[in-house]
Design brief:
Length: about 200
């Protein structure tokens, strides 16, 4: 079993964190690959060429939630994804993944050549991030109780926003800020930190 990843993809980081949290480090090999590359090793396994991708028994799984769900099926008892019959947790999990997607869009736009950057898009994503951080601060009960896909996605989003965009809005909310500092101390987060760029 193999996870294809890049060192700085936040969605790959979710999968790598999940491997640690589910105690699967001895069962899953992690291979760092290039993306947006016609010669990528990943293209030998499927045409999509995106990370994360989990190869199990000849099948290639894409999408972070599907991958975490598949990893759960290989673990003993720990569950990270929301149960399908728990509407509140499922809704919150979707919000958290959407928040990470929005931060990723913001980062990608900010890294473009100066003359190609859309200031309007940057402002849309910045405003969305501010709204989302406020919403998270008002819904801490979903984060503080246990490690989950939702909490992993939020921590990865806030870390990415801080590292790449100097976005520290969460510091205005002591409970959210304290939670982020605490979850970031977990071994699974420390050993999957992105590389400097």
């Amino acid at each position: 079993m193999k996870l294809f990843s890049t060192p700085n993809s936040p969605f790959s980081r979710i999968a790598r964190i999940a491997i640690h949290e589910l105690s699967l480090t001895e069962k899953i090999d992690i291979e760092f690959v290039t993306v947006r590359d016609q010669e990528s090793e990943l293209l030998k396994y499927g045409p999509l060429g995106k990370v994360p991708a989990l190869q199990v028994d000849g099948e290639l799984f894409s999408d972070s939630r599907i991958i975490v769900n598949k990893l759960e099926s290989l673990a003993e008892s720990v569950k990270l994804t929301a149960r399908s019959n728990d509407s509140a947790s499922l809704s919150f999990e979707g919000f958290c993944i959407g928040f990470l997607e929005s931060i990723s869009i913001w980062v990608r736009e900010a890294r473009r050549k100066q003359e190609l950057i859309s200031q309007e898009l940057l402002e849309v994503e910045r405003s969305r991030a501010i709204r989302c951080v406020k919403y998270l601060s008002q819904n801490m009960e979903h984060l503080r109780n246990s490690i989950s896909l939702a909490s992993i996605a939020v921590a990865c989003a806030l870390d990415l926003a801080q590292r790449r965009l100097s976005f520290n809005e969460f510091e205005k909310y002591p409970e959210l800020n304290d939670w982020l500092q605490e979850i970031s101390k977990r071994k699974s987060f420390r050993c999957t930190e992105p590389l400097p760029i």
